[in-house]
Amino acid sequence: MQLIKCPWCGPREETEFHYGGQAHVEYPAEPAALSDEEWARYLFFRDNPKGRFAERWSHSHGCRRWFNAIRDTATYRFEAVYRPDEPQPVNS
Amino acid sequence: MSTQYLDATPPHTPGADLPEHPDFLWRNPEPKKSYEIVIVGGGGHGLATAHYLARNHGITDVAVLEKGWLAGGNMARNTTLIRSNYLWDESAAIYEHSLKLWETLDQDLGYPILFSQRGVLNLAHTLQDVRDSVRRVEANRLNGIDAEFVGPEDVKKLCPIVNISDDIRYPVLGATYQPRGGIAKHDYVAWGFARRASDAGIDLIQNCEVQGFETDGDRVTAVRTSQGTIGAGQVLLAAAGHTSTLTDQLGIKLPLQSHPLQALVSELLEPVHPTVVMSNAVHVYVSQAHKGELVMGAGVDAYNGYGQRGAFHIIERQMAAAVELFPVFARAHLLRTWGGIVDTTPDASPIVGRVGYENLFVNCGWGTGGFKVTPGIGWCLAQTLAKQEPHDLVEPFGIERFVSGVLVDEHGAAGVAH
Ligand SMILES: Cc1cc2nc3c(=O)[nH]c(=O)nc-3n(C[C@H](O)[C@H](O)[C@H](O)COP(=O)(O)OP(=O)(O)OC[C@H]3O[C@@H](n4cnc5c(N)ncnc54)[C@H](O)[C@@H]3O)c2cc1C
Ligand SMILES: [Zn+2]
User: Which domains occur in chain B, in start order?
Assistant: First the structure.
């Protein structure tokens, strides 16, 4: 179990959080124009990297707000957390 | 309800029937320059495919490349539950094909695999569980699969240590029962396949990590490995949780998410648990291994991960559920926990077939439940590679289904458990 830093509440137990998968997946700008193939990509296909991954978390047992995180999927270490309105931190 | 199975005798003294295995099970050759077929991943699926390529199709110019030690991935980490009582026709067909192969695998491999058909109970804890379970039993019967719905008293007869009192958090309202389900000895299964494939002339190459590919037009021509470049007529990716790290190299995206999945064992105990009990609702399932450990599994950790370990709170939840269902477990000591990495798909069914290139096949997305299909999928993949078109039983599991919408939605029947 690890501490995850909610951007609003600070570090809390992992059990307070809910995982939301890949971050920055944009809803299609023109849904009606999408082919079946493009819909499939939007609905079902996500990145699955071994390493840095931008993903969504919700502090479901705390402030109940969603935020983004950069986490390493090989070490599970959180490298950054940021609010949904903040840009993705640049890889340093 | 029929009671023909309810008096099944429990397994005899644990450990008594564990055979010695030979000193040498397979050769350790240097890789050749090229092979007709290169299989990436020396887990159960890769090894079974190699065996059936030789046995059913006479194809032996084959290499199985394994980055670590043979069958040290999920094959070495799983809890070995075998059953075929899936809801949808497509799933039922391939898992039942596999179960039939398990029933004669000892003889086929000339090697003991300790397949123990001690029966599998899937508990129902709510009225909705009961309805879903009865539906699945009926679907199974239509597919010729042994299944019945049993009430709490019969659950108790089949597994006397289950707590069927009605004042617990998730009371047992009944269970599906598949008498032909059970467990096998996972290492022996892998070794049995490896030995036969190696004897037939197939090269099993350990410590050989595939790191990239060479391509020419619509064909993959070679794999780049930690032991050099190896030419390939056809390539099969059977790398379970790590499949998308390979397809990423080719710019092929698959709808896969890799998650840690944990399990644990207790110290050795006298025989107390004669069958297999699973509960999707409380996220625990239990069997007693041949030697006597209680083997328990849980659901996946929620986040993506490749670390081959998971979070402790998952185990804590699982143990809380186990102790409630099996009060005697409160006195057992935990011996060891571990994790594997399983690849999950949006419809909880595997992805099998050609992707991206003419001669590139994937076998992935078996998630938390692919051990039980080991002989079955090996059989089907061998034919798929030999004929270069999908075996009927794997055809429904092509990647196209995510575009066509013909999903095989096994969430209800497969869930997080197995
Ligand atoms: C804790 C746990 C419990 C489970 N319980 C059950 C169960 O009770 N019943 C059930 O049916 N299923 C169960 N499963 C699922 C089952 O183990 C898997 O679905 C199945 O083993 C997957 O197929 P495989 O055996 O080929 O995978 P693996 O054994 O994981 O084989 C893949 C191999 O590919 C190798 N590899 C990966 N990348 C590369 C590369 N780049 N180059 C070379 N080699 C590579 C890996 O090292 C690995 O050995 C469980 C899994 C886990 C983790
Ligand atoms: Zn918060």
Answer: 22-83+186-255+346-404 (3.50.50.60), 117-180+258-344 (3.30.9.10)
